[in-house]
């Protein structure tokens, strides 16, 4: 039995967490925000009780209906995205994490909507201990990243849109703001994680997400000083700040 009094969440003692998890089980979409306020506020901080909840979340994800399952996986994925890749959490909770990974893998094939898909793909990476991209794929779905130029430091918008992909150093909705086209990587030359994500999104029929990945792992040019840079490196640099 888990002794919840030995753990803490965002509000202090975790005594109340089992009851909160009971309510989450009964109404996953309705209680998700409240659960996250306690176990993963702003989706960027986890506590001892957050990790202690993983076995229960894995059980829930296995037993609940399809619609609730996404909420459960998103909760567990947000928690795991807070664990550094060398954290002992991966060892201590290896069994529930393996279950959560397997269920996310299944859900991805049926995700449909690109927004759901990208969020679940981030969960999959968080269960694998992949850092940065377990949070930073979202721009593929929103269509925008903000990064710094490595040379002049100007704030650049990287737009990976349905119709055009470019960088701009100012509000690009304005008509006279310069847009410099991004240079896409060649899909056949993608390697490592970039290749795996590209192959996976294509296999899952997520054409829109797959189309953005060569731009995410391609190059951009600073509109102000003309310096070329790797988009993914700049996103990672902003993330590490
Ligand atoms: Zn620059």
Provide a descriptive summary of the structure in words.
This protein folds into two domains: 4-136, no CATH class; 142-240, no CATH class. It contains 13 helices and eight strands. β7 and β8 form a beta hairpin. α1 (17-26) runs antiparallel to α2, α5 (66-80) crosses α7 (94-109) and α5 packs across α8. With 241 residues, it is α+β, with helices and mostly antiparallel strands. It is elongated. The site of zinc ion has 8 residues, from loops. Zinc ion is lined by residues 149, 151-152, 154, 222, 224-225, 227.
Structural class by SSE content? alpha+beta
Distance from N terminus to C terminus (CA atoms, Å) equals: 40 Å
Q: Biggest sheet: strands side by side, in what order?
A: 3-4-5-6
Proportion of strand residues: 5-15%
Q: Quick check: average pLDDT? A: 95
State the shape. Answer: elongated
Give the count of structural domains: 2
Number of helices: 13
| Cofactors and ligands | zinc ion
SS elements, strand count: 8
List the helices and strands and how they pair.
Elements: E1 8-9, E2 12-13, H1 17-26, H2 28-39, H3 48-52, H4 54-63, H5 66-80, H6 89-92, H7 94-109, H8 114-128, H9 133-136, H10 138-142, E3 144-148, E4 155-160, E5 165-168, E6 180-181, H11 192-203, H12 207-216, E7 219-221, E8 228-230, H13 231-240
Antiparallel strand pairs: 1-2, 3-4, 4-5, 5-6, 7-8
Bound molecules: zinc ion (ZN).
